[in-house]
Amino acid sequence: MPCLNHPQREESWFCPQCQVSFCNDCVDVKMYGHVKVEICPRCKDKVLTIERFRPATPFWNRLPEIFRYPFEDAGWMRLLIIGVVAVFVLGLATIGLMSGTLFGLLGAMGLYTIYYGINISYFYLVISKSEAGDLKPPEWASISGISDLSWPTTQFMLTTLVVFMPGLIFLFILLGAAGFDFSQLGIWIATPPVILALVLFGLLGLAILPMGLLLIGVFRKVSYAWNPIIIFGQIMKIPKEYLAALGFLIILEILSMIVWFVLRFFSIALGGGFFAGVIKIFINSSVNFYFMVVAGHVLGYLAYQCRFQLGWWHDTQAASRPAMPETVAAARSQAHPDLVEGFRYLKQGSLDLSESSFQAVLQAEPDNREALRGLVDLAKERQDEAGVKKWAGKFLDLALRQQDLEGALAVYQEMGSAFPALALEPRAQLALAKALREKERFFEAASLLRQFAVNFPDDPRAPKALYQCGELLLKQEGQAENARKIWEYILQRYPGHELTRHVEAGLKQIPGR
Question: Where does the pLDDT of residue 337 fall: very low under 50, low under 70, confident under 90, or very high at 90 and above?
Fold first, then answer.
């Protein structure tokens, strides 16, 4: 697409707000401190480099680069290091297992955790960096404690267990039907129908495992990888591309198995022994690490290649060249350079960096709704009720001032789902109820007013809120009885209130009382 103002020139920048492209000479420049930001000459929103919106080369057209990827940036040194580490760590673990003692068993488990934790942590790091469009291998993951090694391994093992859970449940049901007689279970397993069922369950697990690992590598949330609705939902967005990646990963696994068999025969040919074992562990671990890095890069790059279909990036919520994910009023929030970084840090689990980015946005643009929304999501991620209450209240207040009722209501409902017992400030709840009433959404407004009175029964505005709740319910068909109960509650809970005579008069107008 050529530049809007200069059709003879190639585009360099794209405005998500205007959905048009510009060359370098057309865009304006705005300074945020020492940060230079390119601005659309039409809407004054931030423009993004056109490279962000150009389709990525499919991974199957990058096979030479994919197979070279583990060797980039002195990657061969990583392969050698992992081989040496494997010789020492796995060798000691083998000795521990052979000792037959409890101390040896625990020591072996710890050593296996260290080794596989290093591998899997790097695997997730490769996915994360490749998903961001970075085609260079990452440095070693930062490891600050045993949890940085044990948790990735646990994630990997539990995710694998979950995707194969249907087959395990099927076996458990068979075992129960056999009266927990393992000999009878063995006979049933040997029958063709059971073999076919187990094969189908196994193929299903193998088919969805890569997406589960990809979700963990990108979002660092095991709940995503354990949710079949999320997994199948993401696969159905990119079925052809995912199937191609799955086939490629199966080929990698076959190659890895071939290497293992070759090394096994090689070790036997050398007569076994110490040196044959060392060579076998060194080569096998280095080759497995190589294939693991290739697999991680393919999975991460698949997400980058299909970023517009998946919509995982904050600015790729629609196809090809997307508009902003919120309303037009929220689109201007893209103007600050720290905003996108805040959402990317949030997605990657770097919560402190995410908070710093969002706070930097608010310092420059106090009414930036996207930054406020990011802080709400950040507080939910931390399970910080006070933070959710603070930032959700600020977001709701700003959204209502900008007359975005749907945006305010969405955040209010999300807050209620995350923390059912948490209540916004009284002013925010009443303002939202007023906005709903003005839009003639009477039942929703009545529910909010009733909730306000429940949350703040001693607030001087509670009786009036309940009275208005009854009035709104009377506007809804079939809600007269509920209105009557609420008004009778006012007489019981707030006797002698100035609204008493209005309540009594209203009750007389309700049929059937």
Answer: low
